[in-house]
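Structure tokens please, single chain.
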Amino acid sequence: MDKVYDVAIIGGGPAGLSAGLYASRGRLNTVIIEKGKWGGQAATTEELENFPGSIENPTGPKLTERMREQAKAFGTDFLEGEVVGFDLNDKIKVLKLKEGEVKAKAIIIATGAQQVNLGAPGEDTFRGKGVSYCATCDADFFTELEVVVVGGGDAAVEEAIYLTKFADKVTIVHRRDQFRAAKSIVEKALANEKIQVMWDSVVEEIYGDGIVEGVKLKNVKTGEITDYRTDGVFIFIGTRPVSEFVKGIVDLDEKGYIITDSEMKTSVEGIFAAGDVRNTPLRQVITAAADGAVAAISAEKYIDKYFG
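Here you go.
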């Protein structure tokens, strides 16, 4: 493509769509490039009630589609494709796609992070129907019910504690005989009367009829299989940033998240990052959207400074 965009945004989730809206509204010629599903992980969330001032009866697909419509109304272009490399030798940056290339003055990386899947039968079937990867998003749906939390790190134990504000019973299923989480968090969890722990256990299967009704647990030491009734399964065995394609280009932390400052600037001038792909303390739709807005404004300032 001979056209030179002001801003090229990689990723069409809430961060990328928000960046597109703010950049286009600021009269910047903007394109969003998405290799998968528009809306990102948010588009797989059945109910999304904690986005302030949201649309009526919000779902992830409805809310993210509305975001896309807003960005499009202000002139954002949308391109389906995968960025596989860059040419940053000149003032104009070149994004190399599997098919063709895109040129831009500034780049915003908003590729998000992927939850590490459990891989158990039933996980995909009941995603959004009792299987969740976000207690902050979905805890309210399990008020006075019983849930299982899978994992043993800080996130799993912290989310288990949070879930006790809503659920009557929270069972943590962990494959080892002790947690990897910080001692202070573990002590708090074990002191909570709503929490019980199934040590040395893994989820072999998630089952139900339309919604989650239970899990099959396997004791890794004895091999014994147990039927365990539950209304929900929260999986916290880690997240993986979608940042492999920028490794060696911008600075990443030890977990692979892109390091930015408060203005979403990366270690490379003219390249910004927003949303779950960066090192952020909270990964929610609202924080991703906020990051996208900040990144767009920062990109605008960069363009004004270096391109006039």
